[in-house]
Amino acid sequence: MIVLFRILVAAAALTFIGWAAPLTLSAAQPRPLVKRIAITFDDTPRGAGAFLTLEERGPRLLAALEKAGVMQAAFFVNPGRIQSQRDGALVRAYETAGHVLADHTYTHPGLSRVSAERFLADIDKSQAWLRERPTYRPWFRFPYLDEGGHDLAKRDAVRAGLKARGLTNGYVTCDGYDWNMERLTLAAKRAGRPIDMAALRDLYVETHVGAAEFADQLAVRATGRHPAQVLLLHETDLAALFLPDMVAGLRKAGWTIVTADEAYDDPIARRDPEVAFANGTRIQMLAWEKGLKGSRWYDRTDGKLADRLFEARVMHPGAAAGAVGVAAQ
Q1: pLDDT tens string 222-234
Q2: pTM of the complete model
Q3: Which residues contact 306 (CB under 8 A, 6 or more apart)?
Q4: Core vs surface per residue 130-143: b (16+ CB within 10 A) or e
Q5: pLDDT per residue over 67-78, tens digit each?
Q6: CA dist., res. 66 & res. 243, Å (int)
Q7: Rounded to whole angstroms, how far apart are CA atoms 255 and 249?
Q8: Could you tell me how far CA 23 lies from the centroid of its own chain?
Q9: Helix (H) or strand (E) holding 180
Q10: Backbone angles phi, psi at 204, to 5 degrees
């Protein structure tokens, strides 16, 4: 009986080891990579684009966000641009759909071009309008991502002014210069040049997925982790037409779309990089603060390169054959 008991104990021990070992091994495995990104828009409400009327673009952009499964985007508003009932209705429609509003100044001045006092007074005007909005968030985004440039005294004065007003920096981490692509598209449309819409869509998607990947890789070098990213877009026809394709491209590359609320809860939101030139994305400034070698700038934010890519891929000699109507998008 004693021998039998010992055999049973040994068997039980082996069974336990066999059951426990996989748990030990799995715990040692690296955690799966989680890449998170929020979608944000600047310059709301924005002027007319190349393809859609202002009355068409707002509903189309809302439909694109819904189709893409973006439950909460952030719109950084310039209240001084709300000049009509149509503009006000557009902003209210964003709120009704569950998206959030934040501050982008009243008239969109660049901080490097005006005094700190004038800049803060412009913010006060925008705050008087925004604080009454039901989905308002106390985030402030600098026009042109210009936080004062080389004038560190001005930078610090505005940082203190934002803090006194209960505002936090609604920074950007990745930027594909969509405004430049829109500018080129508008110029081509006005000149009557044929535009290859399929190629334009592909360039738009590829550029923004690339911007997210570049920012993530730079962030890992600068912070040792994968912080939540904040993608800068503008309220353009291109976004209304191609956003579902862009979001699909991000997801295919392993990105999870999160709310701006989640993104701005990341630890990097509580950092104020100490750099000699305050302009650009939060990741670029963190990388500079750490003294990382190599380029901190996504190559497609080089205007000359971006212009050449647009001309070669969207305005190529076969563009007329590849052009499709907006209604087909």
Answers
A1: 999 999 999 999 9
A2: 0.88
A3: 177, 180, 181, 207, 300
A4: beebebbbbbbbbb
A5: 999 999 999 999
A6: 10
A7: 9
A8: 38
A9: helix 178-190
A10: -60, -50
